[in-house]
Amino acid sequence: MQDLQDKIKLVPIDLQNMPDWYKEKVYPTNKVDTTCAPFIERFQIFMLEGFNYDITTGRPKLAKWIEEMNKLDGYKQTKVLEREKMVEYYQNRFLPVLTLQTIDTFFF
Fold it and tell me: Could you tell me if residue 20 is inside a domain?
């Protein structure tokens, strides 16, 4: 491990002005989006089933983003297959501590 750490060179990056290699190699367009999509999908399902709240209402960019993610083959592999089991798990895990009042503070 130490040999590997000795070979790693840290390079300072100005996050406001990222170099082209960073944009291409580290954060390519739409690649990191696929890592967020499963969370958004599960959150959308839980909010719709648990609170009857559609997170895309009034958010056309979010709705379009979800629509575009659903077209990607790499994302399709992560889709929730058993919605009911997922919702039941989330309800048991999160609803005892969440109330509509705390939900309102997050979204309104």
Answer: no
Total domain count for the chain? 1
Read off the pLDDT of each residue in 54-64 and give the average, rounded to a whole number: 94
What are the C-alpha distances in Å from 50 to residues 18, 85, 97? 41, 12, 13
Q: Write down the pLDDT at residue 53.
A: 93
CA distance linking residue 44 with residue 27, whole number of Å: 25
The boundaries of the domain holding residue 66 are 27-107
Specify if 94 maps to a domain. yes
* Domain-embedded: residue 32: yes
CA dist list (Å): 101 to 41, 64, 81, 104: 23, 28, 30, 5
Where helices occur in the chain by DSSP H, the ranges are 2-7, 20-21, 33-51, 60-69, 73-76, 83-94, 100-107
pTM for the model stands at 0.58
Cα–chain-centroid distance for residue 53? 18
In a domain, 12, yes or no: no
Can you tell me the distance from the alpha carbon of 99 to that of 53, in angstroms, rounded to the nearest whole number?
A: 13
